[in-house]
């Protein structure tokens, strides 16, 4: 038993980093704000950018279009040299809201979310981009040229 404990502590650093529950355990970093090697160990998930943006941050790449999303916003950048509209931005919090249908116990509308983007994806052809937010909306975009089709 004692020999096992000793060998576990004497493993190379690379092996110790893989063991769950140790101070060396690797953590998933979801923010570019913590991209430095030192910061990557300490700042993870929602704490990386100090709020909800990091917990919903994401990248999507399709053809020559890159989408960066965080919080309620996303930015689409085209690397194609022929595109006139190389950058497109969208803010879900500025999108039209549906009429409040759900009422709480006291008759006040129930808060449906903070418009934080939860997931996004391109169509197989790359002609469309869709996202969903925590207000339970599905928003569809055309990518060439970028245009919001439905909220």
From TrEMBL:
Name of the protein described by the UniProt record: Uncharacterized protein
SUPFAM superfamilies attached to this UniProt entry: Peptidase/esterase 'gauge' domain
Record localization: Nucleus
Coiled-coil ranges from the UniProt annotation: none
Any single GO BP term: tRNA modification
Entry GO CC: cytosol; nucleus; tRNA methyltransferase complex
Keywords: Nucleus, Repeat, WD repeat
